Amino acid sequence: MGARAPKSRRDKIMQAQGKILAVDDDPNNIAILEELLENRFDLRVSSNGEQALEIAREFRPDMILLDIMMPGIDGYEVCRRLREHDGLKDTKIIMVSARAMNSEQLEGYHAGADDYITKPFDGDEFLEKVHVNLNLKNAEEVHRIERVKCPDDIRRFM
Amino acid sequence: MNTQQIKILLVDDDPQDRRLVKMILAKSYAPGQCHVQIAGTMSETIKCLNRDTYDVVLLDLNLPDSKGIDTIEKVCDVNSHIAIVVLTGLDDEEVGIAAIQKGASDYLVKGKYLAKLLVRTIRYSLERMRMKDELRKHREHLENEVNERTADLQAVNEQLRNEIEERKQIEQELLIAKADAEAANEAKSEFLANISHELRTPLHSILSFASFGIKKYETAEPEKLLDYFSRIKSSGKVLLSLLNDLLDLVKWESRKTSFTFESANLHRLVQSVIDEFDTMLSERGLHFMYEQSDFDEEIVLDVRKIQQVLRNLLNNAVKFSPDGGIIDIDIHWMENAVRVSVRDQGPGIPPDELEAVFDKFVQSSKTKTGAGGTGLGLALCREIIIGHDGRIWAENRPESGAEFIIEIPWSMNKCREDSDHSLVQPVTL
C-alpha cells in the first residue's frame, strides 16, 4: 500500500460508484473494509450469512464481499443461495478469506464466486480488484440491456 | 532253514496217530531241529497257543471237545498268523477245500503217503505263511507310508492355511495401519490449513491497520490512530496466544509435558482464577455466581494446569455471555470424584458439535464470534483433564446457555497419595 496509485486511476475509482455489501464475522475485518470502502462506495456490512442474505435481497448490491468461515451458514453456502436469487444474477461476489489453500479457493469458485482474495491482502490491490469487478458488472449490465433493446433480426448476428 | 528250529503243535486225540506223526517228524528232521508239543483237546490247544508261539499246527479236526471245520476257526481265533495243516482220516476233497477256505494252509490224509508228504507240506505251509506274512507287512508298510504322507500333506496343508490366515491378518493390519496413516496425514494437512487460516486472520488486521496508520498519520485524528494501534495490539495478542496454545499442543503431542501433582485446596484455586476476571467482568456488566461449598478437602492435582483449564472455561463463558449475563461456577463433591462446572447464558452449542468443540481448531459455529479464539483452548483442556485421569464434557442447559463440566476422580488422588513419593514428582505423560 506504500506506492500510491496514479491520480487519474484514483479518480476513476472514486467515480466507480456502486453498492457494496461486506460480510464478515470478525469486527476487525469489517473495520478494515469500512476504512477502505466507506468514502468511495455505498457500503453496508453484515456479520453473518443469514443477515447478509436478507440485506442483499433488499439492498441489491453491485458487489458482495464474502468471508467464508462464519457462524451459521458459511460463505460458500451464502454464495450458492445468492446465486439462486434472480435479482442478484449480475452481482459480483468476491470471496475474501484467510483460507489460502488452492482447494478452498476452487470451492469458492464452484459455489459461484467471481473472484477470490486471500487475507492478508494489499489495500491498493484490493481496491483495484473491486474497481475492475464493478466495471465488469456495469459493462455486463449495459450489454444485457442493449440485447433486450435491439431488434430480433440484428440480435441473430450477436 | 535247516538250522532253524521248527516248533510244531500236534493236535490229535488218538495216541496212535500221534505216535505215527512224531515218528515221521523224528525221522525227517535232525535231532533238536524240530520241537513237538502235543495237545489232545481243543482246550489244551488253546492253552498252548496262548502260552507259546508255534510255527505250525498239525490239526486233527475231530477232537473230544471240537468237531469238524469249527476246529480250524477256534485255532484261527487264537492265532490267525499261524500255519495250520489239517490232518484228516477221510480222503474227502470237500472237507479239505472247506478247511483251506477257513484258513488252513493245507490238508493231509492220514495214511500211507503221510510220511512222504508231511515234511514237504510243513515246509510249503511255512513258506506260504512267511510270504503271506511278508505281504501283510508290505501292505502294512504301504498303508503306513500312505498314512504318513497323508498326514504330512495334511500338516503342510494346515501350515499353508495358517500362513494364509496369518498373511490375511497381516494384510488387514497393514490396511488398517495405512488407513490410520492416511487419516493422520489428512488430519495434519487440515491442521496446517487451519493454522494458516488462524495466523492469517490476525496478521491481516495487523498489516492493514499498520498500513492505514502509515498512510494517514499526517491527516488522521489522534483517536483514529489510537484505534489503529489498539487493533494492532489486540490482534498481536491473539497471534501470541495462538502461538502459545500451539506450543502447548506441540509439547503435548510430543509427550514432553510433565505434570507436577501436589495437594491443593480446590476452592482457593477456583477463587484465584475467578479473581483474575474482575476487570473484564465489570467492563461488560457480567457476574460470576460462586458459593464455597461446606465440604472442603485438599485434592491432588497440577495447580498450574487446572488453573489453565478453569481460565479457559471462564474465558469462553465470558466471551459468549450476553452483556450483563450471569455465569454460574460450582464445585460438586461426589463419592468418587469432584466436579467443577461452569454455566453461561450464551447461545449454547448445537448438539452435533458438543463433542467436536474439544477437537483442535473446531469452534462452535453458533458461538464463533469476532472475539476470536484459537480453537485450541478446549483441546488443551481435554488433554490436561485426561492427564488427571478425569473427563471433560459440554452440555446445553435447558434454559439455554452452555455448561462445561470437568470431573477429576478421587481414586487417582488416593493412588497417588498411597505411593508416598509421588506427590511433587513430575509425571511424564
Structure description:
- The complex is a heterodimer of chains A (158) and B (429).
- With 158 residues, chain A is α/β, with parallel strands linked by helices.
- Chain A has a single domain, classed as Rossmann fold.
- Chain A is built from seven helices and five strands, in the order αβαβαβαβαβαα.
- Chain A has helices spanning 7-15, 27-37, 49-59, 75-84, 102-110, 123-149, 152-155, and strands spanning 19-23, 42-46, 63-66, 92-97, 115-118.
- In chain A, helix 3 (49-59) packs parallel to helix 4.
- The termini of chain A are far apart.
- Chain B is an alpha/beta fold and 429 residues long.
- Chain B is built from eleven helices and 14 strands.
- Chain B has helices at residues 15-28, 42-51, 70-78, 93-102, 114-216, 222-253, 266-276, 278-284, 303-320, 377-387, 410-418; strands at 6-11, 34-39, 56-60, 83-88, 106-109, 258-260, 262-265, 287-290, 298-301, 326-333, 337-343, 391-396, 402-409, 426-428.
- Chain B has a five-stranded parallel sheet, with helices on both faces.
Quick synopsis:
The complex is a heterodimer of chains A (158) and B (429). Chain A is an alpha/beta fold and 158 residues long.
